[in-house]
Amino acid sequence: MITNKEILVICVSVWLFIAYFYILRTPFDHRTHDMWGHVFYTQYIVGNKKLPKPYEQPVLGGQTIQPPLYYLICSFVKPALIHNKSEDHINAVRYLSIFFGALSLLVIGIFLNAVSKNQYAKLVSLLFIETTPKFAFVFSTYNNDSLNTFLWITVTTLSYFLYINFSVRKAIILFMFITAALYTKGTSILFIIPFIVTYLLIAVKRIPPGNNFRLENKYFLLPFLCSIIAFSPWLYYRNYKNCQRFFPTSLERDIAKPLSKTNFKNLLGIILRDNNLLDHKFDFSHEWDKPWALIQWDLIPPRETKRYDYLGLMFVTSVIGEFVLTSPSVRIIWILFILHLFVYVYSLLMAFKSKINIPAMLIILTAMVIQLGTLLPFAADLPQKGLYDFRYYAWLWVCWALLQLNSITITKDKYKEIIYGVYIAGVIFNIYTLLTIKGGFYW
C-alpha cells in the first residue's frame, strides 16, 4: 500500500516535471492576465523604494490598486534585471509561481490525508487536479493569483484543522495566513464570507464536522475577524485616503455602472440562460474560429464566440481558461471537456451520499453566489465577459479535491474500475494538452 508521504512525493514530482516543460515551451506573455500591470508594480517598488498609490498606472489592467505582498516578494527576485532584462525577471517569478503550486499540492495532500485512508483515490484526485491545464496556467504566470490561490487553499485546510481541534497556536497561524491573503489581493476579503456561512450552518445543524462542536469552537471565527481588523489600515489610509474607495479595481472607472434594474436583469440572464456549451455543432473544420470562452474587451478585435452562461463559462475556464489556442486539436479539447464534466457532475451527485462533503459544498456554493454578486456593477454593459473566470476562485480546488476523493471512495466496487479509468484518462489528456498546447491570447 502506498503511503501518505509517497503520495505527496509522487504528486509534487509530477507537477514539477509538467510545469518545468510547460514553462520551457510557453512564452512568458501567453495564457496570462494583466502581466505588464503586475510587472509595473514590482518595477515601481524596485525603482522608487516605495509603494505606488492607487491608479498610479491609470490604464485598463493596471494593478497598482492591489495590496503589496506579492509585489514585495517579487521585488527580491532578480531585481537588478527588472528594468533592463525584464524577461529574465518575469521568467524567474514564473518559477516562483510553480513553487506556490507545489506548496498548494502539499497542503491539499495533507488535508486529504487527514480525512481519508483511501490512498489510491487521494493519489488520483490530486493528479487530476494538478495536471488540469488551468492549474498550470494559474501557477506559472506573473500574477498575484498564484500566491493568493495558495494562501486561500492553506486557509481552507487550516480552518478544517482548527475547527475539529481548536488551539490558540492554530488560530494564530490561521490569522497569519488570512492576513497574508488579504494583503495579496484585497478583494479576497469576500472569501471570508463562505467560511462564516459554513461555520454557522455547521454549528447550528451539527452536521460533520459539526458533531465535534465544543465550547472553544465558538472562537473559530476570531482569526477571520482579527484579519479584517489587521487589513483595515490599508483599506482606509492607503485606499480611501487616496481615491475615496475602500476597494478600488482596475475596471471600475471604465466599465462599472451604478446598480439598476438592467444590471439585475442581465445578471439573471447570465445565470438562467440556456447553456450553449455545445453550440459548436461539432464542426471540426474551423476548430478555434468560434471559441468557447472569449473575453472580447473593446481593445480586442471583435470575434464570434459561443453564447455562454455563468456555469458554462466557469466550467470552461476551470479547464482551459479563456484563451484561443492553436493546438491541440479541438477534438482533444472536446474529450477534455467531457472527462472534466463527468468528474464534476459525478462528484456532485455522490457528494450527497456523505455528510463530510457538506462543508465543502457549502463553501463552493457560497463562493459562487458571492462571485455573482460582484458582477452586478458590471452587468449593465458586460453581461458575458471574463469577470467570472475560474481563476478568481481557483482556491476551491481544495474543496473539489475532497468531493472527488469521496466520490471515488463511496463508489460501489463493481464500478470503481470505470471511475478510476475516467480519472486516469483525464490525467493523460490533461498532460497531453499541456505538452502540446500552443497559442493563448484573447484572439
Could you give a quick summary of the protein structure above?
The chain has 443 residues and is mainly α. It contains 17 helices and two strands. The longest helix is centred in the N-terminal third of the chain and has 30 residues, at 86-115.
What does this structure look like?
The protein is mainly alpha-helical and 443 residues long. The protein has one domain (4-441). The chain contains 17 helices and two strands. The protein has helices at residues 4-24, 35-48, 69-74, 86-115, 119-131, 133-138, 144-164, 168-182, 192-205, 222-243, 252-255, 261-272, 310-319, 330-351, 358-374, 397-409, 413-436; strands at residues 324-327, 438-441. The chain has a two-stranded antiparallel ribbon with strand order 1-2. α1 (4-24) runs parallel beside α5, α4 (86-115) runs parallel beside α7 and α4 runs parallel beside α16. The chain starts with a helix and ends with a strand.
Task: Give keywords.
443 residues, two-stranded antiparallel sheet, 17 helices, 60% helix
